[in-house]
Every structure is written in structure tokens, then in C-alpha cells.
Amino acid sequence: MSDSPETTKVALVSGGTRGIGRGVVLRLAADGYDVSFCYASNADAAAELEKEVLALGRRVFSQQADVSDMAAVRSWVSGTEEALGPIDAAVTSAGITRDNPLLLMKDEDWQRVIQVNLDGVYNVCRTVIYEMMKRKSGSIVNLSSVAGVYGNATQTNYSASKAGIIGFTKSLAKEVGRYGIRANVVAPGFIDTDMTSALNEKVIEQAKNQIPLRRVGTVDEVADLVSYLVADRASYITGAVLQIDGGIHL
Ligand code: NAP
Q1: Ligand 1: which atom is nearest the Cα of residue 144?
Q2: Does ligand 1 have an atom closer than 6 angstroms to the CB of 66?
Q3: pTM for this structure?
Q4: Which residues belong to the signal peptide in this entry (predicted)?
Q5: In what order do the strands lie in the sheet with 10-14?
Q6: Ligand 1 centroid – CA 21 distance (Å)
Q7: Dihedral, CA atoms, 137, 127, 50, 197, nearest 10 degrees?
Q8: What is the mean pLDDT of residues 191-205?
Q9: Ligand 1 site, residue 190, Cβ cutoff 6 A
Q10: 77 CB contacts (<8 Å, ≥6 apart)?
Q11: Per-residue pLDDT tens for 143-192?
């Protein structure tokens, strides 16, 4: 039997329909959270995921919302609060790539990646933070990337957005720690999702050769780390950048 709404925590996940976000939705539901997620366009995937969360005995809310659009994010967050109650945890996983060497970078690809990846994190965090501050509790996990830590050729736009997320989250952690709110970054290396399957086989093989564990990571491995970080088990961790990358940084 599921817990009463008063005792169940509520988690918000951006970009929940696929990849890491989807894994996080299912993991947090299995952990006992009611879960709300947004997505860009994949309504069928959203409906399927809702069913899976309900099958785990948790309540679920989903809405199409482009995270780069503040009005859409506000609508998603207020819909979540009406449907599920106040938000205890927010995970930002919505993200895109538009790779090219800088010389060939289109202005719109620079702008779109910054808008979705970095503005999107701002929009979600800006929208949830006031209620968390009022309740003097909350936990935020933002998905960055090893590209945001070390840089990556052909990813100036993506790396800039992901480095921005790190600076943003560390600053936020300093601002809101006194309100009992934690903010952390998870920075994955190569994880097996649609985002990486779009890369050609040669690039993936080259990457594997640079990874001491000699394989790409799984969505479940990342979801496990997010599950740990959002929960009270991680109550003394804030402002951290946790890499999950098979040792690619070594
Ligand atoms: P993915 O498989 O491509 O899934 C992206 C998800 O984000 C989808 O649910 C998509 O919704 C949603 N989304 C995309 N643009 C959106 C927008 N404007 N507004 C709302 N939702 C949007 O990506 P992933 O590989 O799981 O990556 C998740 C996060 O981890 C990203 O921030 C990525 O940068 C980061 N990351 C991934 C890797 C990796 O190796 N996969 C490595 C490092 C960091 P639709 O289904 O509707 O399109």
C-alpha cells in the first residue's frame, strides 16, 4: 500500500521521458517518491512512463514543457504542486547536444544549447527555490557532464552550458544552505542513451579506450547516484560535483 500524500516526498525531474531522466524517474518512484516529469515532445513515451510509475504504487504527474521557456516551466511546476503537493527534490536532466567545431558552429546551435541546458536549469531552480526556502528543506541535483569539467572538442556550446551549470549550482549551494537546501551536480561521462547512440561507432570505441573501466556507463548507475544525492543519506553533501565516468578523467 502506498504512503499517504502527507508523508510521501515529491520529486520533480526535467527531461524524464528518455535516458538518464527516465532512469531517475523510475528510481525515485521505486525509492518512494511521487514523481513529476516534463519532456520536450515525446507524449507517447510520457504516457508509457506514467503507467510504469503508477505500477510502482506512486502518484505521477507529467507535462510537455520546454525547459528553456520560463512560462512553460512555471506552468509545469504549479501543475505538479496542485497534483502532488510541495516539491522536495528537483533533478534537472533535460539536455541537448548540437556538436560542431567552433569554426562551423551555427549561431542558432550555440544559442539553443545554452537555452535548453543552462537557461533550463536556471528556469527550474528559480521556480522551485522559493517554496523550498519557505519550507526550509529541499534537494537539487543538476546534470552536468565531464565535458563541462574538462571541455571537449566540437562541444564548445555544450561544454560551456555544462560548466555554467557547475558554477550555478555551487553558487546556489552557498546561497541556500542556511535554509537547509542542498544543491549538487552529477557529471556523467559516456552513458548509454539516445544522446550517445547518435555518435558514430568510431567515436564510441575511441572513448572506451580512454575509460579505465573500458565500457560506457548505464542509466541505472547514474540514477543510483542521483537517488543517493537527493536523499537524506547525503545530508552533509552540498555544492559537490560528483563525476560518474568510469575513470575517464584519470
Ligand atoms: P536523452 O536520452 O537525449 O534524453 C533527453 C531528455 O530530455 C528527453 O526526455 C527529452 O524529451 C528531454 N528534453 C530535451 N530537450 C528538452 C527541452 N527543451 N525541454 C524539456 N525536455 C527536454 O539525454 P540523456 O543522455 O539522458 O542526457 C540527460 C542529461 O545528462 C543531459 O543533461 C545530458 O547533457 C547529460 N549527460 C548525458 C551524458 C550521456 O552520455 N548520455 C553524459 C553527460 C551528461 P523528449 O523525449 O520529449 O525529446
Answers
A1: 44
A2: yes
A3: 0.97
A4: none
A5: 60-64, 34-39, 10-14, 89-92, 138-143, 181-188, 241-244
A6: 7
A7: -110
A8: 88
A9: yes
A10: 12, 87, 124, 127, 128
A11: 999 999 999 999 999 999 999 999 999 999 999 999 999 999 999 999 99
